[in-house]
Structures are given as structure tokens and as C-alpha cells.
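ok here's Bifunctional protein FolD, seq below lol
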Amino acid sequence: MLKWLHSKKSWRWGEMAVKLDGKKLATKVKQDLEQKVSNLKQKGITPKLVVILVGSDEASQVYVRNKHRVAQQIGIETQDIRLPENTAEIELLQLISKLNADDTVHGILVQLPLPKQIDAEQITDAIAPAKDVDGFHPQNVGHLFMNDPRSLPCTPAGILRFFQEYHLPLAGKHAVIVGRSNIVGRPMAALLLNHDATVTITHSKTKNLRQLTRQADILIVAIGKADFITGADVKPGAVVIDVGMNRNAAGKLVGDVAQSSVDQVAGFLTPVPGGVGPMTIAMLMEQTVKFAERSVNCGRKNVSNS
Ligand SMILES: Nc1nc(=O)c2c([nH]1)NC[C@@H]1CN(c3ccc(C(=O)N[C@@H](CCC(=O)O)C(=O)O)cc3)C=[N+]21
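and the structure came out like this:
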């Protein structure tokens, strides 16, 4: 297989894809953040992230635990609010309203999915845009699409960081995204467009999806189906980002990409686990610190919502 190795600017034959190591890059991001947090603490500010988990979804509990562990490593204060499965929407809205008004809180995250009696859109809309560390508020989504981002969704932000870290060019490249979720596909498209890529979004109704993926210089797969993309769907040398988080029959975490087959064709590939996941959490921390820094610059009261 034909490979292009950016660091040596040369073509290589018969090699496996270069692994984009999310664990390693996340560690680097965290080290930079430790310094920023200690600077903030000297100014009397401790960045604080509140994570709200409604119900007892098992996967969510694992993610929330990971977030707290990472925050602790960096020196970010976290508050864990757990509400019962049968929590009413109004109760959650009241809690958010209280946290919006609390100057010691810099970031608010409501873990998704939410139980069905709660309208997730109402909740997203209620979080103050200036504390919306997930970048899900329509105002932040709008800023992102207008190429003036204020808060970036963590998974797309983490993916962008791989391109920057490994010096993978985006301008003029054809990026194909598989999946159109509000959390990954759509904001990813906007972010790549902001960096001058030519973007195609594909989804369940797309005709000849695999013909499109084969043309991708950059292929981002976030569709939630194990082994959805194989080596035959990938252009030789492409950068392939696997956003999938599926549990297989053996309970093992697997992505949306058939890793061993794509490894033979792609130039660069993110593993699962150890790829996009750790970067998502690192970006959540980075955004929390950024919001805390912004609160210093704005004065601690009446932090602007935009
Ligand atoms: N409001 C909200 N914001 C989110 O950012 C959000 C959410 N809700 N709901 C669920 C998804 C999923 N998500 C992950 C974060 C880290 C890993 C992660 O660290 N994964 C590790 C492995 C974890 C394991 O072994 O289970 C890895 O890929 O290496 C995974 C998934 C954030 N999400």
C-alpha cells in the first residue's frame, strides 16, 4: 500500500497507518493546563466544572468518573451532581439556573443521554452560553458556523487538535464525515470548513456512501456502528478518525472502523480506545480553564454570555 509519512515527507510502501495517539496527546494538553490552572490559582481563581448526571446509565457513569479523575490531575475543581432517573425537567432547569448565577462555577455539563421525560433541547438552551463547556447551546453552535467560535464541542475540538499536532494539512482537502449528529458530525463539518477543507457530510440516507468515503483525504466516522468502515472504503494514505464507541459481544470497546483492515490502507488512524475519547475529555478541561480565564478578564460578576 502507498503511504505518505508527513514527518519524513516521503512515500512509503507496505507500512501500517501511523497511530494518532490520543492518550499521549491528551497528556500533553493536560500538562499545559496544569500550568494555566496554577497561574489562575495565584490570582485566587480555581476553575470549577459541574457535571450533572441524571439516572444511572452505566456508560455515562464511566465517562463521568473519567472526567473527574482527569480534572483532579490538573487541579480543576469538579462537582458531581447525581439526580434520580425520575427527575422532572423543571427541577433540572432550576438547578441549571442556580449554577448559571453562581460566579464560582465556570463550566456546566449535563451528561447525555437524558431520561425521556426531560427534553434535552430545553436543557441545552438553559445553560448560559458562557458556561456551556460542551458547545451545544444554539448560540455557540451559531458562532461556530459563522467561523467565530466561542465554545467548541469537545469531540470535534479534540479531533482538530490531532491535525494540528501531527501537522496534517486541512486546507483544500476533501473531508468526508459519516454521521450528522449535533454532537459530532455537524459541528465537525463546520470546524473543518472553518479550516478551509472541502466538506461532505454523509448519513443514513446518503446514496453510494462508500463511493464518497473512498474519495476522502480525511475520513471522520461517527455513526455508532461497529466495523462500519473497512479498508475497501478508504483512500490509500487517508487520515481516518474513528469516533465510534461500541461495546462488542465480549464487552470490549470498539470503534466504527474495522481497525485491522483500515490500518493496511490509511496513512493515519486513531485507535479505539486511546484515540478520540481521551482527547474529548482533554478538550473539556481546556475549555473549562478557558472559561475561568475569561471570567478573570471580565471581572467575576456578570460574566458576559457571549
Ligand atoms: N454532555 C455530554 N458531553 C459529552 O462530551 C458526552 C456526553 N454528554 N455523553 C456521552 C459522550 C461520550 N463521551 C466520551 C468521553 C470520553 C470517552 C473516553 O475517555 N473513552 C476512552 C475509553 C473509555 C472506556 O474504556 O470505556 C477511550 O476512548 O480511550 C468516551 C466517551 C462524552 N460524551
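fwiw The longest helix spans residues 276-297. kinda neat tbh
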